[in-house]
Design goal:
Strand content: 15-25%
Helix content: 25-40%
Largest sheet: 5 strands, antiparallel
Distance between the termini: 13 Å
CATH topology of the largest domain: Beta-lactamase
Strand order of the largest sheet: 2-1-22-21-20
Shape: globular
CATH superfamily of the largest domain: DD-peptidase/beta-lactamase superfamily
Structural class: alpha/beta
Length: 485
């Protein structure tokens, strides 16, 4: 027997009971994506603010599409201060970070390759890294959950290089009875153990067997072994001293590429006179439409925070010298090239919250206001209701950027964080996922068997939210939503 319109379906109720999650810990909403005035198929505690975990990324990424446009790109300008003669620059190189969410190793290598293409082989000065585009206090990566080496805890940075991570690749060398260890990027001043003894037996918990010691940021050691049966494995870890990461990575990369440096790599700012001119070269990011695919499909926290901070930095009205909502850009500043000539203020979480609140009121709803912290969902403070998320998804469905947002969401049983989603509705839903201790969430679009498309939002805030039984609740709800005939 079908459940009354708006009521929780019996199979979902049963799944909640098996998970030992009370109805009071859940908010659910399923409604037509297009018919905003139609009665919802399911509505339970839809107006109650909940911790959405990473589902909060939907607000950040859609606001960015709406305010910046899908073609928006970040620029990383490089300035050269001094003459170049016989391959030697007499002066400094300045690299100005402006928030690129994906300045990975390949892009850093290409940037330095282009610098060498200017005829610079030796720098008789310093390489200065300018991080002033964001005002973000240094944070202890262990603060959130006591896992400082997990890459998801990386803090945002105007010059975010490779997510502040060290990528270790282990490759067995049976002839030498060792496993070779490659570190990327090479970090200047850090001693890295380049081989470990080769072990036998099953692969199993190879990370635990390696007995890695990351306690000293200047030494990375292994006291254990690596099983030959593991084959090649890649293990990314957050660098133990994130504050020095950028300096070490840039110096290590420059030297590894054969460059010479008489001075040091240090943090600083581009001199005003130099910044007023044209940079020697600029590295551009992928467009926003591609960036949000990484953010939403793989729930990348620091990339989401980079986008969130960018909103506060470049959207007009985030600041205003007299509090009058004046534009945050100088005349002539462009989305993809906000170099030294721009009078942009530094981005901050406070400025971004102001932008999000104003945008939400004007674009989504004047009746309720979510609570933003850093825009990524990696927060105990962020709150939004199922109704608020559903309204955002309905507005997005009618917007010119619907395809970009939907294309960024994981597909059930196909890719991203939903690749292992155990559902009969494989491929029939595009859903953002969210997981924190005591919080589990899903929000997005479901294709019904009838041909209709639905908005689905499910939020669980409970001690049992991270159990397999709780995930079954989500799978059961998606299956029910898709089976609408």
């Amino acid at each position: 027997m079908a459940a009354p319109l708006g009521a929780i379906a019996p199979e979902v109720e049963a799944a909640l009971a098996r998970a030992k999650i009370p109805r009071e810990a859940v908010a659910l909403l399923v409604l037509d994506a297009e018919a905003s005035t139609a009665a919802p198929r399911l509505s339970h505690r839809a107006q109650v603010p909940m911790n959405p975990a990473s589902v909060m990324k939907l607000t950040t990424t859609f606001a960015a599409l709406d305010l910046l446009g899908p073609a928006y790109a970040w620029s990383t300008p490089v300035y050269v201060d001094g003459p170049v003669r016989d391959g030697t620059l007499t002066g400094n190189v300045y690299i100005k970070g402006q928030g690129d969410p994906k300045l990975v190793l390949e892009k850093l290598w290409l940037l330095m390759r282009r610098l060498q293409g200017l005829g610079i082989k030796q720098i008789a000065g310093d390489i200065v890294l300018d991080r002033s585009a964001f005002e973000v206090p240094d944070a202890d990566p262990a603060t959130f959950d006591g896992e400082p080496l997990r890459p998801y805890n990386a803090a945002p940075d105007a010059l975010l290089i490779n997510f502040k991570a060290v990528v270790m690749t282990f490759a067995p060398d049976r002839a030498g009875s060792t496993a070779q260890v490659q570190f990327d990027p090479p970090l200047a001043g850090v001693q890295m153990q380049t081989s470990v003894p080769l072990g036998s037996g099953e692969c199993g918990d190879y990370r635990g067997v390696l007995k890695a010691d990351f306690s000293d940021a200047k030494h990375i050691r292994f006291a254990g072994s690596y099983a030959a049966s593991c084959g090649e494995k890649v293990w990314p870890v957050a660098y133990a001293d994130p504050r020095s990461y950028g300096v070490r990575a840039v110096q290590g990369m420059w030297l590894d590429m054969g460059g010479k440096l008489s001075g040091t790599v240090r943090y600083g700012t581009v001199p005003a006179a130099l910044a007023a001119g044209k940079p020697a070269l600029e590295a551009s990011s992928a467009p926003l439409a591609e960036i949000i695919r990484d953010i939403n499909k793989y729930s990348n926290n620091v990339m989401a925070q980079q986008v969130f901070l960018t909103l506060g930095r470049v959207v007009p009205g985030a600041w205003g010298s007299n509090g009058d909502g004046a534009s945050n850009e100088s005349p002539g500043a462009t989305a993809s090239g906000m170099g030294g000539a721009s009078a942009l203020n530094a981005g901050s979480f406070a400025a971004s919250r102001t932008v999000m609140q104003r945008w939400w009121k004007e674009r989504i709803s004047a009746e309720e206001m979510p609570v933003w912290d850093n825009g990524s969902g990696l927060s105990r403070q962020e709150r939004i209701s199922a109704q608020g998320l559903a309204r955002l998804l309905q507005v997005a469905w009618r917007s010119p950027y619907m395809s970009e947002l939907m294309g960024s969401l994981p597909i059930t049983g196909v890719d991203g964080t939903l690749k292992r989603f155990k559902s009969k509705a494989v491929g029939s839903a595009h859903l953002k996922t969210g997981t924190l201790s005591n919080a589990l969430a899903r929000a997005g679009y479901v294709d019904g068997a009838s041909g209709k498309r639905y908005v689905l939002v499910a939020l669980i805030n409970h001690a049992n939210a991270n159990t397999e039984a709780a995930r079954v609740v989500m799978e059961t709800l998606v299956d029910w939503a898709a089976r609408d005939n």
